[in-house]
Design a protein that fits this description.
CATH superfamily of chain B: MetI-like
Shape of chain A: globular
Distance between the termini of chain B: 10 Å
Number of helices of chain B: 13
Strand content of chain B: under 5%
CATH topology of chain B: MetI-like fold
Number of strands of chain A: 20
Largest sheet of chain B: none
Distance between the termini of chain A: 30 Å
Helix content of chain B: over 70%
Structural class of chain A: alpha/beta
Order of helices and strands of chain B: HHHHHHHHHHHHH
Structural class of chain B: mainly alpha
CATH architecture of chain B: Orthogonal Bundle
CATH class of chain B: Mainly Alpha
Number of strands of chain B: 0
Number of helices of chain A: 19
Oligomer: heterodimer
Largest sheet of chain A: 6 strands, mixed
Radius of gyration of chain B: 24 Å
Chain lengths: ~550, ~325
């Protein structure tokens, strides 16, 4: 009998069907991956097991059994005994998963004390051991640290320590690495795998990333719109791709847009954008009133240039200074030293008003398609916002024409201009942000992690769109990303940033296949790659069977 | 933490200094002769001259300001023109009523509001929530003097368990203390209820927001029962807005209670300042305003300290 058995589970929230006839089982010591795009019901399946469903959710039919205990309709007290003790859970967003007003020691020890009745001292000793185990040694991370004193990856380790403190039989990890950069992702996945091996723990790994799943999972269940599409042995399912949806997902995740080698750029051209010796310091909090002010150098003496129509990736781990550099390029932040020249003119020291002409020619696309629009405005107004940068304000009909044209550029219908952002899907919203960026026909688009919040299939479409715009409209693109597959897909050149410096740059293919610096090597090694992962798994298997 | 406190304290002192300048300018330097304002239109020139000399109005403004400031720093707030008493004595006498009254009212309102707010938030969107917030709406809407009269009618006139008004003074023995306390019960309730209604709404909305946070889910995933999650994880995170409102309410309760003081015939600060304005006793007005400003700054400082205790992220803030 499996440890976790879900049979014919149907679930609805306020009469809207979320899950339909879900079958899923996780055996003891097994890693089961639950894969699907956003809205497919992955998280709801996990929350049903935890019985932590949102208000209004109701399991209509089916059964969920854990270790012989029926969970549907189990009394809250019984669930409290299971949660945190026999079933642990790790969540996607480490930045908000910890209580900001409690120390990490308190938060890890709390569950231990609650379930075992251990004394404060014993619980804290166990919490200490657990934090050591997840890679937060006493010396640097005493129990008295608060979450805001830790980085995202460190916080995720604390969350894992909380979930695994009592060696649960089942760990549910809901997109545990989606919010982290690739190097951290590898570390966290390694940690999870070790914990599974050490304690013969079962792992229900929820992910949208097939490459991760191919590396980690024994078996895989693919969900779409609340129904199971396919379930089976992980490597076999992903190699054979029998189900059309599995094939679609696999293709989307390795998708490379068909683009002519470059968006018509020639390196001998006069550069469109030049950065020279860019440096940015941020003041660090002084420890006492009398100590000298200290600075953190976020960007350190960076120089590069970008030609018209060139597509370049700026890759690096989170916190390496990518976004600060981008802000200076966009003249949203003033450099401490150095200069930015755009279309031959110095822009880093200009006043807000004097930047208008430059702004018209440089636009930005942000990561989060949900947060970057005012929810109270219609699409027409949102898209037409950059038009105030034009010298001649277009009248109403002209403005509508321009908006319609921009929407058409990103393959949305002109009729969408009367909608509100909440009426559009995540992918459509990211198209909107691109439409907003292209409406002034800029020469340069800076895109800060433009696809990392999107599902694989939508991500493939947006990458196509960028490649197309780059080629068709000849816009130069600067992609800021920690994801090398994005860089590989749509850029001509790549710059690798590490601790504020650009440590390596060159043609994308050369850098990604033969990285020279440690920083670039680490990024390349950590980048999840479906084909490579499958090859490794298959090779491992043939060795075992020999 | 020390740097945070030092910074808050210096901001407080600076505010106090600024306030003293504003108060001084508003009452003494602006057009209109203070002596004439105090004596009225029909005063004789001799009397005016005498008062001017007594108040030191024949000196230049800067000198007068410095004298006033140093006087206050050494505890000398001047003498009341109408009462012919040192202002500090008047104020201390009134504080003996206003301060306990404000304190009791605030404690009462907190004791009622915070549990009601938590209760409503925990049952967000259900009948209990609607009922509690409906009651709170009523508490805000009902004028407190009307509610005070109702209380007098029921508990003083009808049941006769507390006095209808007046204040006997704190006296010496426990018996007299108790009599004084009894006189403050009804006014405290009348003051507390509308405050509780506001505070309950604030507590509820802060709690509702916090309960939607990811870390609440993390706490529940640890196996903690709902009530422990509420009290240990949610409440402390919801405290910042609650503390802010508490600080504002205390300041209001100290001096803004003139209506309730009149209903219960209590000799409080509100009445003192009201009468002083009516009788054009500028020295009392000036001093009481400065004392109130100082108290409010002190309360804000306490609230800031509470912030830092409640939320560790603020301890390092500048």
């Amino acid at each position: 009998m499996s440890l976790l058995e879900i049979e014919n589970l149907s679930l609805s929230i306020h009469d809207k069907t979320i899950l339909k006839d879900i079958d899923l089982s996780v055996a003891s010591g097994e890693v089961m991956a639950l894969v699907g795009e956003s809205g497919s019901g992955k998280s709801m399946t996990a929350l049903t097991v935890m019985q932590l469903l949102p208000h209004g959710a109701r399991a209509e039919a089916g059964r969920v059994a854990f270790d012989g205990i029926e969970l549907l309709g189990a009394p809250e007290a019984a669930m409290c005994r299971l949660r945190g003790k026999d079933i642990g859970m790790v969540f996607q967003e480490p930045m908000t998963a910890l209580n900001p007003v409690k120390t990490i020691g308190e938060q890890v020890a709390e569950g231990i004390r609650w379930h075992t009745g251990a004394s404060r001292f014993d619980a804290e000793t166990r919490a200490r051991t657990m934090l050591e185990r997840v890679g937060l040694p006493e010396k640097h991370f005493p129990l008295t640290r608060y979450p805001h004193e830790l980085s995202g990856g460190q916080r995720q380790r604390v969350v894992i320590a909380i979930a695994c403190a009592l060696q649960p039989k089942l760990l549910i990890a809901d997109e545990p690495t989606t919010a982290l950069d690739v190097v951290l992702q590898t570390q966290i996945l390694d940690l999870l795998r070790d914990l599974v091996d050490e304690n013969r723990m079962s792992l229900l790994l929820i992910s949208h990333d097939l490459a991760i799943v191919a590396e980690m999972a024994d078996r895989i269940t693919i969900l779409r719109d609340g129904t199971v599409m396919e379930t089976g042995e992980a490597t076999d399912t992903l190699v054979k791709q029998r189900h059309p949806y599995t094939r679609q997902l696999a293709q989307a995740s390795t998708h490379v847009p068909a683009r002519a080698r470059s968006g018509g750029y020639r390196s001998e051209q006069k550069p469109l954008l030049e950065a020279e010796g860019l440096t940015r310091d941020y003041p660090i909090r002084r420890t006492s009133l009398f100590s000298r002010a200290k600075f953190l150098r976020a960007v350190d003496d960076v120089s590069f240039s970008l030609c018209a129509g060139q597509s370049t990736a700026l890759v690096g781990r989170s916190g390496c200074g990518k976004s600060t550099l981008a802000r200076m390029v966009l003249a949203l932040d003033r450099p401490t030293a150095g200069a930015v020249r755009f279309m031959g003119e110095e822009i880093s020291t200009r006043s807000h008003e004097a930047l208008r002409a430059a702004r018209r020619n440089m636009q930005v696309v942000f990561q989060d398609p949900f947060g970057s629009f005012n929810p109270r405005h219609r699409v027409e107004r949102l898209i037409s916002e950059p038009l105030h940068l034009l010298d001649e304000r277009p009248d109403r009909t002209r403005r509508r024409d321009l908006v319609a044209e921009a929407l058409a550029q990103v393959e949305l219908s002109p009729a969408d201009m009367n909608k509100y952002p909440h009426e559009m899907s995540g992918g459509q919203r990211q198209r909107l942000s691109i439409a907003r960026a292209v409406i002034t026909r800029p020469k340069l688009i800076v895109a800060d992690e433009p696809v990392s919040a999107l599902d694989v299939s939508i991500r493939a479409q947006i990458l196509d769109l960028f490649a197309d715009l780059n080629e068709r409209l000849g816009m130069a693109c600067l992609f800021i990303t920690h994801d090398l597959t994005v860089a590989r897909a749509i850029t001509d050149t790549v710059m690798v940033m590490h601790e504020g410096k650009i440590v390596e740059k060159g043609p994308t293919n050369a850098v990604l296949t033969q990285p020279r610096t440690e920083a670039a090597k680490a990024l390349v090694a950590a980048a999840p790659d479906l084909e490579r992962a499958l090859e490794a798994r298959l090779a491992g298997k043939t060795r075992e069977s020999c | 933490m020390i740097a945070y406190l030092a910074k808050r304290l210096s901001i407080g002192l600076l505010t106090l200094l600024l306030a003293s300048v504003v108060v001084f300018l508003a009452l003494e330097v602006l057009p209109g002769d203070p002596a004439r304002i105090m004596l009225g239109m029909n005063a004789s020139p001799e009397a005016l001259e005498a008062l001017r000399t007594q108040m030191g109005l024949d000196h230049p403004p800067l000198l007068r300001y410095l004298a006033w400031l140093t006087g206050m720093l050494s505890g000398d707030f001047g003498n009341s023109y109408t009462y012919s008493l040192p202002v500090i004595e008047l104020v201390l006498e009134r504080m003996a009523v206003s301060l306990p009254l404000a304190f009791i009212a605030l404690s009462l309102s907190t004791l009622i509001a915070v549990p009601v707010g938590i209760f409503a938030a925990a049952r967000h969107g259900r009948a209990a929530d609607t009922l509690a917030m409906g009651a709170a709406q009523l508490g805000v809407a009902v004028p407190n003097f009307w509610f005070a009269l109702l209380l007098v009618y029921v508990f003083a006139v009808g049941l006769q368990i507390v006095p209808a008004g007046g204040f006997p003074g704190w006296g010496d023995g426990w018996g007299e203390h108790w009599q004084a306390l009894r006189a403050l019960i009804l006014p405290a309730i009348a003051l507390a209820l509308p405050q509780a209604a506001i505070l309950a709404r604030i507590t509820r909305s802060a709690m509702v927001e916090v309960l939607g946070e990811d870390y609440i889910r993390t706490a529940r995933a640890k196996g903690l029962p709902w009530r422990i999650v509420l009290w240990r994880h949610a409440l402390r995170n919801a405290l910042i807005p609650v503390l802010t409102i508490l600080g504002l309410q205390f300041a209001f309760l100290l001096a803004g209670t003139i209506i309730i003081e009149n209903v219960f015939y209590l000799p409080g600060l509100g009445r003192l300042i009201f009468q002083a304005i009516g009788q054009r006793d500028l020295i009392v007005v000036e001093s009481v305003v400065m004392l109130l400003v100082a108290t409010i700054i002190l309360i804000n400082l306490l609230v800031d300290i509470c912030y830092a205790i409640a939320d560790p992220r603020l301890r390092g803030a500048r």
